[in-house]
Design brief:
This protein is of the alpha/beta class. It has eleven helices and 18 strands. Strands 3, 5, 6, 9, 10, 17 and 18 form a seven-stranded mixed sheet that branches. Strands 13-12-11-14-15-16 form a six-stranded parallel sheet, with helices on both faces. Strands 1-2-7-8-4 form a five-stranded mixed β-barrel.
Length: 359
C-alpha cells in the first residue's frame, strides 16, 4: 500500500489515501517517485477543463527510481533513475511516421486503463498515463526514460513537462534566432522555463508579462530583460520595449483567450505567435479577416513543446550540466502530497512558479 492523491470525481477535492499497486506485468515498470511537479494541466484535469477518466491519480511531471520491471523491459533496470514521459509515442501512427511524435494518436490511451485500486477496492485510472501524485506508480515501459547523468532526480522531475515544453516552444515551435525579441505571456512554471530557453537561444530583448507584480524577480532571474504587469495596454507597452514594432516572437503560457489575444497583438508584423497554454472550449479567440492579411503573423499551437523527449532530454541535460539551464530555479515551493490543493489555489490566484511535491 502506498499513499496517493486521488481525484474521486471531476470538481471534487483530492483525497490523500492508500492505494494498492500490482507488480509490473510484461512491458511495465514500477517506480518510486522522488518528486512530482504540480502543473496547471493537473488543475485543468481536476476541474474538467481537460477530460480524464475518474477516479484517478493525477500528476504527470515526475522522476524517481525503478523498483522493478516486467518481462521484456530492457532499457531500464531496478535502481535506475528515470523521468516519467506522460505522452509516449507509438511509433506507427500517421503523426509518428511523419516524425511528429508529440502528436501521437495513441499517446494517451493508457490513461483509460485501470492501474491500481484504493483501500476499499475502488478501481483507479492513471491521470495522463503516469499517476505521479503518489509515492510509487506502475507505468508502461514507454513512459520512462533514463535520467541523464549529472541531473539530480528532483530537478529531473521538471524535465517531464515544464522544461521540455518551455524549451521546445522556443527551439522547436517558434525557432527563436539569436538577437530576436521575445515576449512570454504567463510566468508560471512553463513560462519561467520558456524565459530560460529564450535566454539560451540568445534572444535580445525578452519581455515577461504576468498579472502579478510579485513575479518580476522570478522572471528576471529566468532571463527576462523587461517586465510588464498585464493590463489593457500590454501590447502597446511591449511594442514600446521592442523598437515600436512588437516582438519577433510571442509565447503564450496562460491558456486564456485574453492572453492569447495579447500575445498576438504584441507580435510584430510578420512575427510568430506560439500558444503553449491549454484553455477551455469556452475560451473563444477572435480575429478579423483584414488583420490576418495585414499583419502577416503566424499563429501556431504547441503540444509538449513539439518535443521528442528521447532526443531532447540528453540535449537539456548537457545544458544543465553546463549551467545554462536551471530546472530548480522554477520551483518556488516544495510540498507534500497534502499541499497539492493549496498549490492549485496558488495557480488560480497567479502566485509563484512551480510547486514541487518531494517524497
Amino acid at each position: 500500500m502506498v499513499r496517493a492523491a486521488v481525484l474521486p470525481a471531476i470538481g471534487a477535492p483530492l483525497e490523500i489515501t492508500g492505494i494498492e499497486l500490482p507488480e509490473p506485468g510484461p512491458g511495465q515498470v514500477r517506480v518510486r517517485l522522488a518528486a512530482a511537479g504540480v502543473c496547471h494541466s493537473d488543475l485543468s484535469l481536476s476541474n474538467g477543463t481537460m477530460r480524464v477518466p475518474v477516479p484517478a491519480v493525477l500528476g504527470h511531471e515526475g522522476a524517481g527510481t525503478v523498483l522493478a520491471v516486467g518481462e521484456g523491459v530492457t532499457h531500464v533496470a531496478p535502481g535506475d533513475g528515470v523521468v516519467l514521459n506522460w505522452a509516449p509515442s507509438c511509433g506507427t501512427c500517421h503523426h509518428c511516421r511523419l516524425g511528429e511524435v508529440w502528436l501521437c494518436a495513441h499517446a494517451l490511451t493508457g490513461a483509460g486503463n485501470v492501474y491500481a485500486v484504493t483501500e476499499d477496492g475502488t478501481e483507479l485510472h492513471p491521470g495522463l498515463n503516469v499517476a505521479a501524485f503518489a509515492e510509487e506508480t506502475v507505468v508502461a515501459a514507454g513512459c520512462v526514460l533514463p535520467v541523464p547523468d549529472g541531473v539530480p532526480l528532483t530537478d529531473a522531475a521538471l524535465l517531464g513537462c515544464a522544461v521540455l515544453t518551455g524549451y521546445g516552444a522556443i527551439h522547436h515551435s517558434a525557432r527563436v534566432r539569436e538577437g530576436e525579441s521575445v515576449v512570454v505571456v504567463g510566468v508560471g512554471g512553463v513560462g519561467l522555463a520558456t524565459l530560460q530557453a529564450a535566454r539560451l537561444a540568445g534572444a535580445g530583448t525578452v519581455v515577461a508579462v504576468d498579472v502579478s507584480p510579485g513575479k518580476e524577480e522570478l522572471a528576471r532571474g529566468a532571463g527576462a530583460t523587461e517586465y510588464v504587469v498585464a493590463s489593457a495596454t500590454t501590447a502597446k507597452e511591449v511594442r514600446a520595449l521592442t523598437g515600436g514594432h512588437g516582438a519577433d516572437v510571442a509565447v503564450e503560457c496562460a491558456g486564456r483567450a485574453a492572453s492569447i489575444r495579447t500575445a498576438w497583438d504584441s507580435t510584430r508584423r510578420g512575427g510568430r505567435t506560439t500558444v503553449v497554454g491549454i484553455g477551455g472550449k469556452d475560451q473563444q479567440v477572435t480575429f478579423n479577416a483584414l488583420e490576418i492579411f495585414h499583419w502577416g503573423r503566424t499563429l501556431s499551437g504547441c503540444v509538449y513543446g513539439n518535443c521528442d523527449p528521447a532526443a531532447d532530454l540528453p540535449v537539456l541535460a548537457a545544458h544543465i550540466r553546463a549551467g545554462r539551464l536551471d530546472p530548480g530555479a522554477l520551483v518556488t515551493e516544495r510540498i507534500s502530497l497534502e499541499g497539492i490543493p493549496a498549490a492549485f489555489d496558488a495557480m488560480l490566484a497567479g502566485r509563484g512558479g512551480r510547486a514541487l511535491v518531494v517524497f
